[in-house]
């Protein structure tokens, strides 16, 4: 009877244990969770291991697919007995695993940058979490355990559950886990039986661990990665740690292998195979008294692993019992590479070279499925990175799906693997959880589990302790543990600054002055910014200057752009328009940081944003400089560290005034890494045109497919000037034709042949330009000076839309209007006062007998005034009917570009449509500008329209929107480019100069000084010519 009561008591405790408060205890982060181990799958045979598809293995059972599901808004409403075998779930819905609740209609997506998801509900007070709005999802699924699994150990694997995970099997409590971005595994051998088994899980939206998961991303809930069961022999490999190394000459390699067998028995055979399947080295080792297997495998001159050449080998570990029977086979891909900190140089080396890290930060996010990211999407992301010359990625701010690291191993990316720790909302001072003893264990466990899980991946070159979580003893302990456990990799932490517990100085958003001061400081560590060049909206101006500096100083070794992909979620408006949703788009109650999660180099659907082209250019690894351009000789520098240029060919093209006139190919480029050689292109000086602007375009293409890129793909480009642009003279030519002036009380009308120009005397503006009666200015609009642009996200962040607001509607007061005939020409001069800006604007128009209009726009300011606002632009704008929908120009293109972001866009002649000019950034803003323009034409389908030239290269744009369509005004609204409706008109803007875009950050930094328009005098001269094709 006592035994019966004891048994009942134990059963009761095991089934009700999960009703306790572990979800509020920061020192209890797991119950019965299996120890973290290297991510691998053990196959029952060599054949299956060599095939490497776990889904087809006899000891694997997928749990992905539909589960019975229940969702409640408040934690107190959750079902408490749902795990019982007799619980009726027929009225529950079917719900996918993996699957995110909010992306499937349960709860709303919520976005915060810093500050907790619940900050509108209750004040953060760790580990306090309220039950209200703490959504709970409960899952049930019946699975069939194969009879062949009898006598095996059975494990449950759940790849990612946010924010925590409870597990029951057949009505009994199994365990509990926190840390939403690492897999939780449970040994359920004692809970399952052959045949049908009930697995039940419960996930909370928030728990005490959520205080460490305050990352700058969508706050979503559910099971984001796959779930499965797998079976193993009781005698099995519990863990494997493979450490590659190279000798001092970086020639010969070794693999240090340490494996843990579940008990002291059997034999482990190790076989190393190269890419072709040849056996390179093999050995056999018995475990010691503690079940440990240790061996080192020496390999003569192995193919090395790097992001440039990701050579992989396969290590097969076969465990046999004492009778020689194969129990399991584990394949592990390994790469021979060596990472070193060279303190005397302040550098980090990979395989003996101070590589440059051309990186970006990547959140795991899909616009349709949220945290659930498919393998196909991962490959797409890597392809886009390769297309744009990225060689490094930081997993911000948590460990990614294990498949991501497999793909980075395979295709070649340097990875910074970051622990799932960010407590930004607690600040960096005394309240930081980095100093909180109750959270010390959680800090350490999250770092330990990350390292143990991913330690065998050659792509991982640095460990990162976390992100924006303050600093204190909890991080020092993490650093010390990792350095003891894995001495082969550096460890970094941004908040450590320049203290001892970071091997890499990895600040965020350090400007150029800070970087240069560091480069000269003598610090023994390299500077690699973990976040820089904030790519929010229309951004990345001044990116070239970062890389000019990085390439100047050896201890500046690159950085990671924030960030890779806009985190917009696909959503549809009531009228069916597709938008990318951001914070605040789902309800009015939740805390929100609006579109601050849309800082990507690419759109949510992986289309490159215009600024990605600048990254592609500045990250390229083949550079061309003049040697003897007129003789057809250039210098080619191979910036790669491990690969020569034999896999590439060079295309060249000569342009005269933007049009190709001669081209050729150089197929043989035998240029070693880090070397420069002259290359003879094949043209002679006598082949050069005698007049006009002569440019040389050089493009480097792949001879054959490589790392997801097709043969012929262009990996690098350059444009060099041979003969400079002969500046256009704005003086009107004397044609012998006469322009005449007619005036009444309201208008001044100038007639010049087929052209008629109409001025409004009350405004002083040109209100009409017609060609044989064909009007080119939309009725109700005029040609006006323009000093404003629709603010970009960076403009908003620096509050420039308020600082500069006087230039938006500057209160122009017409002081004089003078019109007179001057020989065969007519001159009109208008003068305006700008009282708020202490300035005078003079517009001088000279209309020639052939209808050409020369305009001189002159701004004179009061130089005694201090602290006057800068300008967004200095130029002119007019609105034309929508039928003027074609652009033909000679300038930089084809993608939009600005004075501080145009290195990637080559000079040439481009023909485009107005409807394609606006790029749909997540939120409406300035877009579509082209810079360094020599001439610009805007015409209708018949070639009728306006041509514009200036005595200096200028910028211009043509959009189907008015400026106010793209301008939020004083504050940002919940607006989206997908909601914009093109107007039946064309807004033409042309400027002497437009302020740069900037990218140092999006919360206060201005563009660099050379790209500003300070309060000063300006003069802009253009000639506008009404044109027609015939």
Automatic annotation (TrEMBL):
Belongs to the glycosyl hydrolase 2 family. One of its GO terms (cellular component) is beta-galactosidase complex. Gene3D superfamilies: 2.70.98.10, Galactose-binding domain-like, Glycosidases, Immunoglobulins. This is Beta-galactosidase. Its EC number is 3.2.1.23. It catalyses: Hydrolysis of terminal non-reducing beta-D-galactose residues in beta-D-galactosides. Keywords: Calcium, Glycosidase, Hydrolase, Signal. It holds the Pfam family LacZ_4. Monomer. GO terms for molecular function: beta-galactosidase activity; carbohydrate binding. PROSITE patterns: GLYCOSYL_HYDROL_F2_1, GLYCOSYL_HYDROL_F2_2. InterPro entries: B-gal_small/dom_5, Bact_Beta-galactosidase, Beta-gal/glucu_dom_sf, Gal_mutarotase_sf_dom, Galactose-bd-like_sf, GH, GH-type_carb-bd, Glyco_hydro_2. It comes from Odoribacter splanchnicus. It is an enzyme of class 3 (hydrolase). One of its GO terms (biological process) is lactose catabolic process. Residues 749-1025 form the Beta galactosidase small chain/ domain. Residues 1-18 form the signal peptide. Its cofactor is Ca(2+).
């Amino acid at each position: 009877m006592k035994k019966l009561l004891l048994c009942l008591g134990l059963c009761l405790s095991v089934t009700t244990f999960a009703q306790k408060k572990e979800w509020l205890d920061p020192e209890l982060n797991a119950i019965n969770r299996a120890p973290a181990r290297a991510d691998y799958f053990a196959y029952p045979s060599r054949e299956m291991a060599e095939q490497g598809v776990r889904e087809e293995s006899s000891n694997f059972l997928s749990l992905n697919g539909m589960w019975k599901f229940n969702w409640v808004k408040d934690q107190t409403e959750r079902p408490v007995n749902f795990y019982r075998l007799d619980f009726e779930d027929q009225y529950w819905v079917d719900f996918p695993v993996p699957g995110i609740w909010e992306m499937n209609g349960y709860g709303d997506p919520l976005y915060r940058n810093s500050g907790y998801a619940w900050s509108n509900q209750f004040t953060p007070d760790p580990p306090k979490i309220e039950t209200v709005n703490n959504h709970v999802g409960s899952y049930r699924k019946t699975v069939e355990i194969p009879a062949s699994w009898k006598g095996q150990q059975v494990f449950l694997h759940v790849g990612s559950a946010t924010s925590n995970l409870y597990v029951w099997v057949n009505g009994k409590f199994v365990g509990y886990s926190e840390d939403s971005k690492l897999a939780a595994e449970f040994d359920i051998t004692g809970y399952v039986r052959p045949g049908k088994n009930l697995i039940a899980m419960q996930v909370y939206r928030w728990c005490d661990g959520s205080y460490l998961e305050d990352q700058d991303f969508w706050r979503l809930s559910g099971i984001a990665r796959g779930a499965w069961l797998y079976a193993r022999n009781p005698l099995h490999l519990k863990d494997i740690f493979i450490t590659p190394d190279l000798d001092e000459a970086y020639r010969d390699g070794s693999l240090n292998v340490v494996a843990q067998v579940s008990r002291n028995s059997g034999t482990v055979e190790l076989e190393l195979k190269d890419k072709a399947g040849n056996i390179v080295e093999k050995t056999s080792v018995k475990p010691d008294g503690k079940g440990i297997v240790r061996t080192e495998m020496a390999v003569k001159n192995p193919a090395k692993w790097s992001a440039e050449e990701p050579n992989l080998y396969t290590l097969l570990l076969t465990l046999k019992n004492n009778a020689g029977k194969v129990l399991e086979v584990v394949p592990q891909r390994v790469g021979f590479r060596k990472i070193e900190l060279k303190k005397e140089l302040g550098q980090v080396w990979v395989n003996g070279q101070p590589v440059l890290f051309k990186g970006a930060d990547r959140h795991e996010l899909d616009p349709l499925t949220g945290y659930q990211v498919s393998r196909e999407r991962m490959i797409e992301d890597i392809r886009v990175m390769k297309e744009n010359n990225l060689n490094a990625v930081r997993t911000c701010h948590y460990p990614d799906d294990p498949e991501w690291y497999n793909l980075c191993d395979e295709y070649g990316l340097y990875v910074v693997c970051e622990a799932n720790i960010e407590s930004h909302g607690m600040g960096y001072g005394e309240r930081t959880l980095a100093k909180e003893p109750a959270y010390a264990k959680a800090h350490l466990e999250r770092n330990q589990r990350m390292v143990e899980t991913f330690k065998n991946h050659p792509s991982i070159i640095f460990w990162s302790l976390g992100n924006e979580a303050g600093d204190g003893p909890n991080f020092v302990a993490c650093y010390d543990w990792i350095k003891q456990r894995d001495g082969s990799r550096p460890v970094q932490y941004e908040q450590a600054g320049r203290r001892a517990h970071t091997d890499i100085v990895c600040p965020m958003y350090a400007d150029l002055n800070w970087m240069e001061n560091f480069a000269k400081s003598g610090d023994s560590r390299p500077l690699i910014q973990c976040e820089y060049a904030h790519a929010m909206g229309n951004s990345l101006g001044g990116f070239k200057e970062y890389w000019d500096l990085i390439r100047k100083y050896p201890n500046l070794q690159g950085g990671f752009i924030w960030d890779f992909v806009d985190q917009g979620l696909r959503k549809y408006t009531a009228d069916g328009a597709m938008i990318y949703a951001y914070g605040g788009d789902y309800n009015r109650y939740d805390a929100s940081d609006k579109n601050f999660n849309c800082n990507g180099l690419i759109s949510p659907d992986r289309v490159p944003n215009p600024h990605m082209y600048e990254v592609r250019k500045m990250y390229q690894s083949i550079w061309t400089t003049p040697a003897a351009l007129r003789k057809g000789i250039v210098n080619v520098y191979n910036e790669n560290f491990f690969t020569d240029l034999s896999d590439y060919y060079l295309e060249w093209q000569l342009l005269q005034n933007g049009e190709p006139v001669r081209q050729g190919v150089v197929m043989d480029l035998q240029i070693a890494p880090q070397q420069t050689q002259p290359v003879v292109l094949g043209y002679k000086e006598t082949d050069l045109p005698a007049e006009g602007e002569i440019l040389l375009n050089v493009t480097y293409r792949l001879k054959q497919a490589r790392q997801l890129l097709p043969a012929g793909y262009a990996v690098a480009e350059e444009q060099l000037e041979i003969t400079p642009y002969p500046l256009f003279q704005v003086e009107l030519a004397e044609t012998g034709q006469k322009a005449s002036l007619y005036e009444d009380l309201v208008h001044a009308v100038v007639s010049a042949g087929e052209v008629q120009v109409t001025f409004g005397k009350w405004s002083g503006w040109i209100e009409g330009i017609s060609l044989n009666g064909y009007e080119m200015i939309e009725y109700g609009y005029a040609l006006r000076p323009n000093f404003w642009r629709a603010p970009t996200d960076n403009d908003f962040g620096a509050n420039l839309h308020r600082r500069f607001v006087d230039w938006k509607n500057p209160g122009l007061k017409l002081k004089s209007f003078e019109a007179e005939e001057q020989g065969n020409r007519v001159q009109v001069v208008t003068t305006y006062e700008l009282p708020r800006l202490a300035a005078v604007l003079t517009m001088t128009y000279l209309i020639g007998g052939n209808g050409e209009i020369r305009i001189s726009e002159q701004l004179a300011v009061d130089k005694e005034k201090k602290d006057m606002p800068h300008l967004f632009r200095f130029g002119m704008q007019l609105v034309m009917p929508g039928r003027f929908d074609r652009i033909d120009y000679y300038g930089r293109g084809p993608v939009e570009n600005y004075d501080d972001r145009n290195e990637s866009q080559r000079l040439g002649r481009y023909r485009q449509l107005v409807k394609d000019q606006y790029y749909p950034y997540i939120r409406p803003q300035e877009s579509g500008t082209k810079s360094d323009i020599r001439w610009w034409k805007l015409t209708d389908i018949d070639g009728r329209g306006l041509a514009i030239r200036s005595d200096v290269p200028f910028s211009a744009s043509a959009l189907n929107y008015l400026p106010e369509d793209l301008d939020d005004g004083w504050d940002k609204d919940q607006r989206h480019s997908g909601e914009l409706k093109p107007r039946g008109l064309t807004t033409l803007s042309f400027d002497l100069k437009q302020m740069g875009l900037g990218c140092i950050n999006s919360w206060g930094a201005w563009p660099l000084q050379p790209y500003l328009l300070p309060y000063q005098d300006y003069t802009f001269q253009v000639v506008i010519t009404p044109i027609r094709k015939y």
